[in-house]
Specification:
Layout: H1 3-22, H2 36-69, E1 82-86, E2 90-95, E3 100-110, E4 116-121, E5 125-133, E6 136-139, E7 146-154, E8 157-167, E9 172-180, E10 185-193, E11 199-211, H3 219-224, E12 227-232, E13 236-239, E14 246-251, E15 255-261, E16 265-275, E17 278-283, E18 293-301, E19 306-315, H4 318-322, H5 337-355, H6 361-375, H7 377-392, H8 394-403, H9 408-422, H10 431-446, E20 469-477, E21 481-485, H11 486-506, H12 511-527, H13 532-555, H14 558-571, H15 579-597
Antiparallel strand pairs: 1-2, 2-3, 3-4, 5-6, 5-11, 7-8, 8-9, 9-10, 10-19, 11-18, 12-13, 12-15, 14-17, 15-16, 16-19, 17-18, 20-21
Helix pairs in contact: 1-2, 5-6, 5-10, 6-13, 7-10, 7-13, 7-14, 8-9, 9-15, 11-12, 11-13
Pfam families: 60KD_IMP, YidC_periplas
Subunit structure: Interacts with the Sec translocase complex via SecD. Specifically interacts with transmembrane segments of nascent integral membrane proteins during membrane integration.
Protein name: Membrane protein insertase YidC
């Protein structure tokens, strides 16, 4: 109990004591023969006493409110009702008690079990604005407001507005919300007029405590993709750790925005200017009633009694988020820096372009594979030719291995010399493939986080954003699961077939040959619970690559390659070693010398 509450309690007790001593009526004397007038008066007294008692209780409540809330006491009495703002994207419900958001529903989406998609409601989320007054910390959620709705045109766009007003004897509190048509952004303005003298500081404390509602079937995958993101005013994006069940962070420097980002949807709060500081925490619950529990405490500065901010309630669509505020697109995980550029500048734009012409996302994936493979075809061709050269000179390499089988260093030196004479590079077949790797890894991040795939069916997959459960197993296989994904199985078979074909082209031997068969099996376990769209993309990519190499084989003759290699051998017979070759040989000799000394 704080000092203000103790003082109020003492005063309340004093009032009761004074009332009982001076205002309680003495008992009526008993009369032997009451007249009709007296009987009538007695019959009326119970009702009058009850009315008097109600007035006295109201007076005491008003007194207590005056003690606790001061000039804000008149705002804690009223009737609660609901008011809504609605556009093509969402329905936002407010309460006149607190003038705060009560529920947000996205109209374009449904949950995994086809219920209305509610991003937040008053049962799972508590959003409170607190002011520090001379009477202590008071929550605006305790005050009753009157609401006025209106519609206006701003830059040719329809904007719906609700203005909530709470009037006191000293001034008023105004909270207004604006929702443009076809927008996921709700703008908020807050003003304390004539009341700044009642404040002990110029910050409003925003406390947003939320239990994020489950929207997807696979709750474990949802939890892996759910966390608090935030953006500092120094233009630095950051987030709370996703690997811990419970984590928190105190941010002392100014913040621009904070978001509760789930796999496909985000709820965010964005400062008009900045939040002075913030305290953030997230907890993964043991039950499945919520995905994660989040809490953010933010200090919003008042300037001349005014503050402005906005909320984002909507999908994790990269192009949409990029237009909201700087750094907000980071709520979509596009991968590490060396692959994110592929998604941000190529795949996203290509995907949205194809959406204009096709509404079947399986077909879009196939077309994307063909476009990427066509663009990378020169690299594929060079890779094939490089492997073909290594294949035709294999007899010479085998001869050197046999000749210098007891001297590995000399063997390597002679191989490098042979490569230089024949004009062959041992990495000529690998380098083009290496340059294609960013595209393969980019898809590993794009499809699991692409809301475009959500609840889109293709063939037997009812939802491309999750795994296609072709067969349900009566048991669970460690690291695999209790289901069989057919797209993942097809991807594995195609990868094994491609590896077999590739080994024939390169004449691979030893561990490298077996590694090509082990990797697809490993990926089968990894990708079995990943989105069907990803496995389907890799399957189609394998088949197209297989077809490309089969086509190239028809036009690349090993005899002609052999002729070119022999021509290079004659041409480079008296050619001096390059500086790189010389340095490489010197390094090999030094390594061998150190080995002998040991």
């Amino acid at each position: 109990m704080d000092r203000n509450q103790a003082t109020g309690l003492i005063l309340f007790a004093a009032v009761i004591l004074v009332y009982s001593i001076f205002f309680t009526s003495p008992p009526e004397p008993q009369l032997q023969e009451p007249t009709g007038e007296v009987i009538s008066s007695v019959q009326r007294n119970p009702t009058e006493n009850i009315s008097q008692e109600v007035e006295e209780v109201d007076s005491l409540q008003d007194l207590r409110a005056q003690i606790q809330y001061g000039v804000f006491a008149s705002l804690v009495k009223g009737n609660e009702s609901e008011v809504t703002l609605e556009n093509d994207k969402m329905i936002v419900t407010f309460s006149t008690k607190g003038a705060e958001i009560k529920q947000v529903e996205l109209k374009e989406y449904k949950t995994w079990d086809q219920r209305p998609l509610i991003l937040m409601d008053n049962e799972s989320s508590d959003l409170s604005y607190q002011i520090n007054t001379t009477k202590g910390s008071l929550s605006l959620n305790e005050f009753y407001f009157t609401a006025n709705t209106s519609t206006s045109q701003v830059d040719g766009e329809s904007v719906s507005t609700i203005e909530f007003t709470a009037q006191t004897s000293s001034g008023k509190i105004t909270r207004s919300y604006s929702l443009p048509n076809e927008s996921y952004v709700l703008t908020k303005k807050l003003e304390l007029e004539g009341l700044t003298s009642q404040l002990v500081d110029t910050n409003i404390n925003i406390i947003w405590d939320a239990k994020l509602l489950r929207q997807e079937e696979d709750i474990e995958e949802s939890r892996r993709k759910t966390n608090i993101n935030f953006f500092k005013s120094s233009e630095k994006y950051d987030y709370l750790s996703q690997s811990k069940d419970e984590t928190s962070e105190q941010v002392s420097e100014p913040l621009k925005w904070v978001s509760y980002s789930q796999r496909f949807f985000t709820s965010g709060i964005i400062a008009g200017n900045q939040f002075n500081s913030g305290s953030l925490e997230q907890v993964t619950p043991q039950d499945t009633l919520s995905v994660k529990n989040m809490k953010a405490t933010l200090a919003l500065p008042l300037e001349n009694g005014k503050a402005e901010l906005s909320y984002y309630f909507g999908p994790n669509n990269y192009k949409v988020l990029k237009r909201i505020t700087p750094g907000f697109e980071n709520n979509v995980d596009m991968g590490y820096f060396f692959v994110s550029w592929v998604n941000k500048y190529i795949i996203v734009n290509l995907f949205h372009f194809l959406e204009k012409f096709f509404n079947n996302y399986g077909i879009i994936i196939i077309i994307i594979v063909f476009i990427i493979k066509l663009a990378l075809f020169p690299l594929t061709y060079k890779s094939y030719v490089g492997m073909a050269k290594m294949r035709v000179i294999k007899p010479e390499i085998d001869e050197l291995k046999e000749k210098y089988k007891d001297d590995p260093t000399k063997q390597q030196q002679e191989q490098m010399k042979l490569f230089g004479q024949l004009g062959v590079s041992p990495i000529s077949g690998c380098l083009p493939m290496l340059l294609q790797m960013p595209f393969l890894f980019a898809m590993f991040f794009f499809f699991p986080n692409s809301i475009e795939m959500r609840q889109e069916s293709f063939l037997w997959a009812h939802d491309l954003s999750t795994y296609d459960s072709f067969i349900k197993l009566p048991f669970t296989i460690p690291f695999y699961g209790s289901h069989v994904s057919l797209f993942t199985l097809l991807m594995t078979v195609s990868q094994i077939a491609y590896t077999h074909f590739n080994n024939q082209l390169t004449a691979a031997q030893g561990p490298m040959k077996n590694l090509g068969y082990i990797m697809p099996i490993g990926f089968m376990f990894i990708l079995n619970s990943y989105p069907a769209a990803l496995s389907f993309y890799y399957f189609v990519s394998n088949m197209v690559t297989f077809g490309q190499q089969a086509l190239i084989k028809l036009f690349v003759d090993d005899k002609k390659i052999r002729e070119k290699v022999d021509a290079s051998k004659v041409k480079n017979a008296n050619k001096k070693k390059s500086k790189f070759q010389q340095k490489l040989e010197d390094a090999m000799k030094a390594a061998e010398s150190n080995k002998k000394k040991k």
